[in-house]
Amino acid sequence: MAVQRLPTLFQIAVDLVILTIRDDRLHVLQVVRGKDPFLGGRALPGGFVRLPEGLEATALRELTEETGLDGSTLHLEQLRTYIAADRDPRGPVASVAYLAIAPNLPTPVAGTDAARAHWEPLDDAGRTADPLAFDHDQILVDGLERARAKLEFTPVAAAFCGSTFTMTELRRVYEIVWGVPLDPPNFHRKITGTSGFVVETDAHRALGAGRPARLYRRGTAKSLHPPLLRP
Amino acid sequence: MAVQRLPTLFQIAVDLVILTIRDDRLHVLQVVRGKDPFLGGRALPGGFVRLPEGLEATALRELTEETGLDGSTLHLEQLRTYIAADRDPRGPVASVAYLAIAPNLPTPVAGTDAARAHWEPLDDAGRTADPLAFDHDQILVDGLERARAKLEFTPVAAAFCGSTFTMTELRRVYEIVWGVPLDPPNFHRKITGTSGFVVETDAHRALGAGRPARLYRRGTAKSLHPPLLRP
DNA sequence: GCAAAAGTGTTAATGTTACACCCATGC
DNA sequence: GCATGGGTGTAACATTAACACTTTTGC
User: Fold this and answer.
1) Omega of the bond leading into A181 within 30 degrees of 0 (cis)
2) Which nucleotide does the CA of A185 lie closest to, via C1'?
3) Right CATH for B156-218 from 3.20.20.10, 1.10.10.10, 3.40.1620.10, 1.20.120.80
4) What is the pLDDT of residues A101-138, one digit of tens each?
5) Residue B81: closest C-alpha in chain A
6) Under CATH, to which class is B11-147 assigned?
7) How many alpha carbons lie under 13 Å from residue A220 in its C-beta half-sphere?
8) Does domain A11-135 have CATH number 3.90.79.10?
9) Which residue of A49, A83, A96 is in closest CB contact with B8?
10) Tell me, in Å, how far CA of A183 is from C1' of C8?
């Protein structure tokens, strides 16, 4: 049998696509890199795994460090793993990408490591104004497509909203993430007709003009039957 | 700022959930381990990444070594990445799982490394008779669920079939993977009505009794609109 | 009252389901 | 002919889509 070379040893980075909606536009959290490689360049937030900390724990730690968000209110899921040879001079690095969906917070970005972090708006194609370091442009595209697909089959859109929200706010999430207008009456019926998507509260919210909108909370459903397909 | 510990160095294994249909039942490729840990136990086939070989290349190499399949005819996609501390005495190991869907081949399993490999039938819950080593039972469950979901939205069911197939063969794929019966006339219309799913050929195939079935080839569609949802 | 935003009613178009029935073959 | 599996027709039913219209507020 042929002599087998030893397996490569990798550092494993967890990189985060953190999406939120601000001012009716989709934004991604971006950091300005403070060290080589790509010093001064834009990148997704991320950090290395140090056992016994697992992937999810690393992702949550990075997330709270960079945004001050607490992980209990947001949606976090693994996207996929990327290996790029020569992507880092320190040696072989694998990147496990995570997608996080966060509500728009009163505290935009704060904390110790977060001085270099900011919310960057995305254009209709899901790209930032400046290209990102490493293969982070590809990770961002994959993350956005995952988010768009997940809205069809799960109630994850509510993760973009606060603890209570109006039907119009929820509809705006779909319209902004998908980039298409939706019919308000039909949307309202579709959501309220899907058991467990939202729970009606007795509270209402007025925007100044017009009839005040009823507020809803997130329901317990984990998936949508039937799905809410993109037009 | 606090002193930061060094990132953990990992070996990265690619583990494969290779599904096929034999004798009207779903099977997964299983190996009997030839070394520690779990010597003599059942596991999914897999191997370590050695740069410059990437994840996909490692998966394809393992696949051909274990099954003799050539990668051009089958479907291969990344599932997700698992990190389990203490899963291997040789040190920290991350597992990047891939899902492969293969047609039932005349050559069942052959080749140098494949002596210990065999097709293991799955029960209705998607489990093998004996538990698998490491966290491979979980990976198998995740792979099966991904396959079931993918059948709804993509034409990947054809990857279970040969280069040409009858409508009934394709329908059996859905019935076996989902574990539900489907109405043959409606299935036929649904598939032929989805442009790009299959391409009609002039050939037919007879099974002895009954009207010979038309043969189809795979089309070029990458997704199904509208989807073919599980009942 | 009037404008604005939320929510309901109604109908046509579309898609799904169930199943009766015809077609093409082996024996 | 007759059994068997492939394939088409058709009508009931459910879902979706479009949009008119009513409700409830601020000014």
Assistant:
1) no
2) C7
3) 1.10.10.10
4) 999 876 555 555 556 889 999 998 889 999 999 999 99
5) A81
6) alpha beta
7) 0
8) yes
9) A49
10) 14
